Amino acid sequence: MIKGTIVLNFKAYSEILGDSAVTIAKNIASVHNKGFELILVPTLLTLREVAKTIKIPVYSPHTDPFPPGPHTGGIIIDELKKLGIKGTLLNHSEKKLPFSILTKTVEYCKKKQFPVILCTSSLTEVKKMITLKPEYLAFEPPELIGGKISVSKAKPLSIIKTVQVVKKINPQTQVLCGAGIQNRDDLQKALQLGAQGVLLSHALIKTKKPEKVLEMMLS
Ligand code: G3P
What we know:
CATH class: Alpha Beta
CATH topology: TIM Barrel
Shape: globular
Structural class: alpha/beta
Order of helices and strands: EHEHEHEHEHEHHEHEHH
Largest sheet: 8 strands, parallel
CATH architecture: Alpha-Beta Barrel
Number of strands: 8
Helix content: 25-40%
Bound molecules: SN-glycerol-3-phosphate
Radius of gyration: 16 Å
Strand order of the largest sheet: 2-1-8-7-6-5-4-3
Mean pLDDT: 97
């Protein structure tokens, strides 16, 4: 049984641009997962190389809701799938989308069997987004993103409430939480509160030895 899901969002930090994305991905892949499911979300420009190099599932940080066709600059699921990409993250607070676009995109992802991690920034948004029944719903308070205080320590009641709301509407959706997750305590606390995993970024991406931090987190 999977102990939890760890989604590593590379964002667009200088440490992961270009070939560095593959180096970090390899270092992450060298860590024993200890029964956790790992998902990597590199930049659009590096996800192909990362997916070719490691076995951990790679998700796209964005996807458009259309089939192949005349869509200049489009991020097309059919192409992502051809490149070995296993799913997508949508609506991160750093890349918000209108609800009408999200509705179309999540529907299209379902049709294409392309799992979605749908991000939310508040309980109000959780209530709205769960109606789309994504595979994963992530709760990430924007004010804690990139900081040293984790969502599991700062907002325990919001995590509990998110789990309640999600499970009432669609028990199959896995609940994740993120923002400021740094270490084993933050991960364990999130799991104790009912989350099924976490999203994180700077604690791994902005350190010299991400594999060491991850190893301690999963220990
Ligand atoms: O998507 C994960 C993210 O927004 C959390 O970022 O740097 O607070 O772990 P960070």
